[in-house]
Amino acid sequence: MVFTGIGASSGLALAPAFCLTPKQGPVGRASSRSFEEAREQLKRQYDQSIAALTGAGRRAEAEVLLCHREMVSDVLLEERVNQGLIQGLDPAAVEKACHILCQMLAQVNSDYIRQRAEDLKDVCSRLISLLCQEELPSLAGLEREVVLVAHQLSPADLATADLACIKGIVLAGGTLTSHIAILACSLGIPAVVGCPHAVEAAKSGEPLFLDGASGKVECGLTHRRKTELARLVKEEGERVCQLAQQALLPSVTADGLPIRVESSISDSRTAQKSVEYAADAVGLLRTEFLFHNRESLPGEEEQLQYYLEIARQLGGQRFTIRTLDIGGDKPSPCIPIPKEENPFLGTRGIRLTLRQPEILLCQLRAILRASAQADIQVMYPMITSLEELQAAKQWMDTAKKQLAQEGLPFDPAIREGIMVEVPSAALLCDLLAPHCDFFSIGSNDLAQYLLAADRNGECLPQLGSYLHPAVLRVIQMVLDRAAEEGIPCSLCGEMAKDPLATPLLLGMGLTNFVVTPAAIPALKEGISRLDTGACRRIARQALSCSTAGEVVRLLQMEREQTVPAR
Predict the structure, then answer these.
(1) Are 105 and 111 spatial neighbours (Cβ–Cβ below 8 Å)?
(2) How would you classify the pairing of strands 12-19 and 207-211?
(3) Using CA atoms, how far apart are residues 267 and 23, in angstroms rounded to an integer?
(4) Active-site residue 179, yes or no?
(5) Other C-beta atoms within 10 Å of 453: how many?
(6) Pairing, β 2-4 against β 438-442
(7) Residue 68's closest CA among 130, 126, 128?
(8) What single-letter DSSP state applies at residue 457?
(9) How does pLDDT run across 57-66, given as a tens digit for each residue?
(10) Which residues, listed in sequence order, are joined to residue 174 by a DSSP beta bridge?
(11) How many beta carbons lie within 10 A of that of residue 562, not counting itself?
(12) I need a surface site. Which of 247, 378, 403, 404 has the fewest CB within 10 A?
């Protein structure tokens, strides 16, 4: 049986299915404890998982569980449950409350908020299981390789698991922006989400195959089919190992041009992956995880220790810290942001921190203090004007003066750059460049703002967006201006890791790619097969195309002629 879901994390996996479904106790679905008792027990379970994850350096997952723990105490949830309780013993009240609240969240015009509905469902399902004294299968004792199969999965399920045993994940629900999808990607675990029929058909112990790129899932395998798929998985594993070995070598084109391949990370675990795949540096450290899923702002000392931990993991390698890039589309409970009709065009990135400068000043002080012990540069997101950049740099000057007066060490020559991710910054790059030490082109946001289309929406083709002629012309303009001003310019986002776009970007003059650690081996391998002369020819042809479709066809044709058959 073959099913198709959403490919959330690329890779092939073939292993016995491990179906995560509750085991009912003798009381079935009838509750024998109070809602308050179940809630307190769930809090204790979350506390244990958070402690385990934090101790293992899995900070991002711990932050997600902190959010889940806070949901357990949500006043609105408690009110809804109490309204439906029958003698205080009816788990259906929790189910109904969850359904109502999830409907409310689903109506919000924000992918981030809608995703919180998935978090709430997970919390409520755990509450119901505790009310009914159902035992949720534990992954703590997992000793064999499996493909996890579940209706939904959260970092709490993985907190005590040996991740080496998890070869793949198949979920009935979930989206590309769900916590598990993002986690699977960062860990390099193949995953398919949004595949309910496969979850229903899978049986624990029976072999299951998944392709995390195409979203295909197969179960009920014949012996012959299992043998065929095992060969495919073996070949893919050998290819991945070869790529991983090549990743340890410097990134150089076929005709000898050195290319920098840097990583995009968010915590100490992905910092370890960056080192493992021999990234030349960290081109983007996202700091949003420090602010997500918490009621109070992280203090200067907490941020300082976070940056120093990253520095320790990187072993002295340079890393670029992006100041807080949060806003209406991805809010945090600790930062008040007014409701906006169009959050992507609202208060986010540097706009937010300039309006709440105490947040920016605290972060810059922590970054500067860390720079006394590590090779750090700082990057401002969502810059749209010279005035914004000047204002951000003024706050940097303020932070330096304060630390100097307090006798605290820092690097006075710390490098400052910007994300070029909105059209105004690209058009003003000649005015912005003299005030910057470097540029970093954010291909995801740049494409959506240039094309006036939500990059997560159906109206914007996933492939054609950043290959649109308008986007290519703007990227070329920024690269040219950076070269004229003599400042480095990198590019991050989906375009940076797309093998179809690699020769085009090289031909346009890009010599610094920023990608997730897992994407480094394939990118380096692709670069090693390319000749810069041929790449420049491809870029000239692509920039003369009239439509994204023409660009795609050109690049596909060139790729077929370049990539050797396997």
Answers:
(1) no
(2) antiparallel
(3) 35
(4) yes
(5) 16
(6) unpaired
(7) 126
(8) S
(9) 676 677 777 7
(10) none
(11) 15
(12) 404
Dihedral angle over CA of 450, 451, 456, 457, nearest 10: 160
Length of the chain: 566
At 502 the three-state DSSP class reads helix
- DSSP lists the bridge partners of residue 258 as 252
Tokens of 467: 């290959």
425 pLDDT exceeds 60?
Answer: yes
Rounded to 5°, angle at Cα 92 from 87 and 94 = 95
State how far the Cα of 15 lies from the Cα of 459, in Å rounded to an integer: 37
The 3-state DSSP composition of the chain as helix, strand, coil percent (nearest 5) reads 50, 15, 35
Q: What is the pTM of this model?
A: 0.76
- Tell me: the pLDDT tens digits for 462-514? 444 899 999 999 999 999 999 999 999 999 988 998 899 999 999 999 999 99
Question: How crowded is residue 382: how many other Cβ atoms within 10 Å of its Cβ?
Answer: 22
137-151, 384-398, 531-545: lowest mean pLDDT where? Answer: 137-151
CA dihedral 277, 514, 337, 175 (to 10 degrees): -60
Cα separations in angstroms, 62 against 68, 166, 324, 326? 10, 19, 19, 19
Across residues 516-536, what is the average pLDDT?
A: 93
Q: What is the pLDDT of residue 319?
A: 97
Rounded Cα–Cα distance for residues 222 and 33 (Å): 46
The DSSP secondary-structure symbol of 347 reads S
**Catalytic residue status for 132:** no
**Cβ partners under 8 Å of residue 564, min gap 6:** none
**Rounded to 5°, angle at Cα 153 from 147 and 155:** 105
Contacts of 130 (CB under 8 A, 6+ apart): 33, 38, 41, 42
Q: Is the model's pLDDT at 16 over the cut of 90?
A: yes
Residue 218 DSSP label: E
What pLDDT, on a 0 to 100 scale, did the predictor assign at position 27? 41
Within 13 A of 402's CA, how many CA atoms are on the CB side? 13
> Which residue in the list 19, 492, 535, 545 is annotated as catalytic?
492
Indicate which residue of 19, 68, 124, 179 is catalytic: 179
